[in-house]
Amino acid sequence: MLTIFFKRILLAIPVLFAVASITFFLIKIAPGGPFDADRAVSPQVLKNLNETYNLDASNWEQYVDYMSGLIQGDLGPSFRFPGRSVTEMIATGLPVTFELAFYAILIALLMGVFSGVLAALKRNTFLDFIPMAIAMIGICVPTFLMGPLLVLIFGINLELLPVSGWGQLSGDKLLPSITLGFAYAAYIARLSRGGMLEVLNQDFIRTARAKGLTERMVVIKHAMQGGLIPVVSFLGPAIAGLLAGSFVVETIFQIPGLGRFYVEAAFNRDYTMILGTTIFFSAMIVFFNLLSDLAALWLNPRSRDA
Amino acid sequence: MKNNSLWSDALYRLSRNRAAMLGGFVLIMLIICAALAPWIAPYSYSFQDLNLGASPPSSEHLLGTDILGRDLLSRILYGARISLLVGFVATGVALVIGVSWGIVAGYIGGRVDSIMMRIVDVLYGLPFIIFIILLMVIFGRNLWLLFGAIGAVEWLTMARIVRGQVMGLKNQEFVLAAQAMGVSNLSMFRRHLLPNILGPIAVYATLTIPQVMLLEGFLSFLGLGIQPPMSSWGTLIKDGVESMEEYSWLLIYPGITFTITLFALNFFGDGLRDALDPKTSDN
């Protein structure tokens, strides 16, 4: 277990290094500099800017410079917002995105596991068909449609909830979290239903029932531990999907999180910001994948002693 | 029951699955409509009736018009071409890369296999959405680049599936016999291995198309995909969202079309999977 852990961490370091390097050079070959956008800058100003940001140095020098900064957690200055560093901007956006992702995952897990387990237990009844039909809707209606529809219904027509913002009006966190979490609730419901069905037919469940445990004990203590392994393995890749979802949700609801910063940086060609956030997102995803793999390993008794 | 080949058997099972048949029917209709869009669309996708502006559905414009006075039905029909094209072409790209990668890794095995699959593992763990956005920002929003970029992301699972299948086939007699006859690697891949794994490939391909279309919609929604005046369903939804407070039909009709298509693709894909491999039907 510990060796697997260290092996995976050791593999993650060169991967992140490669991601940082590739992104850096991709951005270097991008046409157009960061300062030749809307209005022309006088040559003298351009020269000063290039000097300030060390853009006159050779690509190789800039690369070494950037990488040594990266190791110390310095992602350089933002080209678009003078005086602010990329690290600073990530630090302001991250808590918001994390909070959003946390609520979304919470909603997804509560709704998904509950309805999935229930559907498996009441197989081929109403309690199976209806949640699974809703889950199919959750999978087929994309986040960028679900969000606006929820806004249209609850925000504009019923006027129950605020249509945008984060933490300013009461209840404005609800719609974004549901929008982001719903698709995952659907996947988790399907996964936990499948996992539970597989486990419920096994001998150890029959043993547990035979020795007179209550149904609640059988389900919660015995079946769910094994039946929910697919859900745990899914959570790692889900984080990557949540990130992409946060781009959409933060754009729809105008939430000042990391996802919206990234999309804005992409539009503004704020290259240092794109570079920094890409590296940061990659590191986060590699980390969460690692975490969910380890959790799944730990839940599975067969691999626990290995 | 004379002919009991895998495919006729599967076709029979598929024809008994009502949801899958309905999905298939909807898909065929959509493809026909998309192909015939220039002839059946009531207006051109860029024709503007400036007197109208945004108007609700009427007998002249069945689904209404958008803010610029363009007929929504026509735009949805033309959008179908782009959205379906992205779905099929990008899936095709993913298919070519994934199948070749998987066959080579699975058949050659050993060190080559472990290096190739390790590469797949590593790529799996990366935030590809971000790389697609990065590519679109750097190289401009080009339709063909979009196909390539999406295809280059979606091949990973295909490679894994194909590799697993090939590993299973590798030690069967017909492969050994072909080897004994001195068949070259290339014709081994083409003539002997590929026909035997077409089933899983077909299933996964149908399930990849909706994912690809979602990805395209996502990018277009963020404004990083298809550029005006061309429109995909993603861009139509994006435009609809911007004016949904006053003109909700601009969001609702493209949204319904997109959702129905995804439903159809998913049902058809699930049905195909059940038909070709009855064992895995319960997931």
What features would you describe in this structure?
The complex is a heterodimer of chains A (306) and B (283). Chain A is an all-alpha fold. Chain A is 76% helix and 0% strand. Chain A has 13 helices and no strands. The longest helix of chain A has 36 residues. The model of chain A has no long low-confidence stretch (mean pLDDT 82). Chain B is mainly alpha-helical. Chain B has twelve helices and no strands. Chain B is elongated. At the A-B interface, α1, α5, α6, α7 and α10 of A face α6, α10, α11 and α12 of B.
Helix vs. strand class of chain B: mainly alpha
Low-confidence stretches of chain A: none
Mean pLDDT of chain A: 82
Helical segment count of chain A = 13
Please report the total strand number of chain B as a whole number. 0
Largest sheet data of chain B: none
Estimate the strand proportion of chain B: under 5%
Q: Helical element count of chain B? A: 12
Number of strands of chain A: 0
Q: Which segments of chain B are poorly predicted (pLDDT under 50) over 5 or more consecutive residues? A: none
| Secondary-structure element string of chain B | HHHHHHHHHHHH
Shape of chain A: flat
What series of H and E elements makes up the topology of chain A? Answer: HHHHHHHHHHHHH
For this structure, the quaternary state is heterodimer
Query: Helix share of residues of chain A?
Result: over 70%
Which percent bin holds the helix content of chain B?
Answer: over 70%
